[in-house]
Design a protein that fits this description.
By secondary structure, this protein is mainly alpha-helical. It is built from eight helices and no strands.
């Protein structure tokens, strides 16, 4: 039975991943993600059901459109696979709970954010608003039933997460803009993105997500500078690192915290 559940979750993740690809392609263009139906961006041929089977359609067509033979970005395959695998990992972590449903939704939104920000260096407001609406529902739910990742039952926990997440990045943006006389220190989209994340994670895991994001972003930037692919003035999207930090916190956040506390206890006299 467990295997059946895993396969089911994986397939659902693949199907949703196919829709996420539509969002990644159309949202930056200001297009509807529902109409018109899926079509080849090169020849505009409307795709048939056989062309829309997650993973398999891409593999069988060898990464090309069946009609014009134009190459299809491997991103389509990657997003579907990522959504499927992440769905299964979240299922193992949270089981059949409200927590699983909430984190699946947030994770799917974050996947779209990751790829859009990496390519276009923007975080669309539509995605932030969707996250805020779901986070608001979660806030109300927490008044009656505890949301596991918060640990406590304090009604203000997610609100404090929102304030800490967005407030910290807003402070970085304002201070950086004042010091460097530039508005390219950090995008306002990053500040807004932390608002729904704070609602989902609560204040403790939001702090961890911020810390991991900053560390990953700093290390990545340092590597690019060392290999000559960027300079200290280069603009690098921070959204993908927020996404990675958030996903790590969702999956292993409390394990990381407990490990850190154990190490600290051993090292202290």
């Amino acid at each position: 039975m467990e295997t059946t559940y895993v396969v089911l979750v994986f397939i659902v993740g693949l199907v949703i991943g196919s829709y996420l690809n539509v969002c990644i392609y159309r949202i930056p263009k200001g297009e509807s993600t529902v109409f018109p139906p899926s079509h080849c961006p090169n020849c505009n041929t409307q795709l048939k059901p056989v062309d829309l089977i997650p993973l398999l359609s891409y593999l069988l067509a060898r990464g090309k459109c069946r009609y014009c033979r134009q190459k299809i970005s491997p991103r389509y395959f990657l997003v579907e696979l990522l959504a499927g695998i992440l769905s299964v990992v979240l299922y193992f972590q949270w089981g059949w709970t409200i927590d699983l449903a909430a984190f699946l939704f947030l994770s799917y939104v974050l996947i779209v954010v990751l790829f859009i920000d990496a390519e276009h260096m923007i975080i669309p407001d539509e995605l932030v608003i969707a996250g805020l609406c779901a986070g608001g529902v979660l806030l109300i739910y927490n008044l009656f039933r505890p949301f596991q990742i918060y640990v406590d039952r304090n009604w203000w926990n997610p609100l404090l997460g929102l304030v800490i997440g967005s407030g910290f990045l807003l402070a970085v943006l304002l201070i950086g803009t004042a010091l460097y006389k530039s508005d390219e220190v950090m995008g306002l989209g990053d500040v807004k993105l932390m608002a729904p994340i704070g609602l989902f994670l609560g204040w403790r895991m939001t702090l961890l997500a911020l810390f991991i994001s900053v560390v990953l972003g700093g290390l990545f930037s340092l590597v690019l500078i060392l290999i000559g692919r960027a300079t200290r003035k280069s603009v690098i999207p921070f959204g993908p690192f927020i996404v990675l930090g958030t996903l790590i916190s969702i999956l292993w956040g409390w394990k990381i915290v407990h490990w850190y506390l154990e190490i600290g206890h051993i090292m202290l006299p």
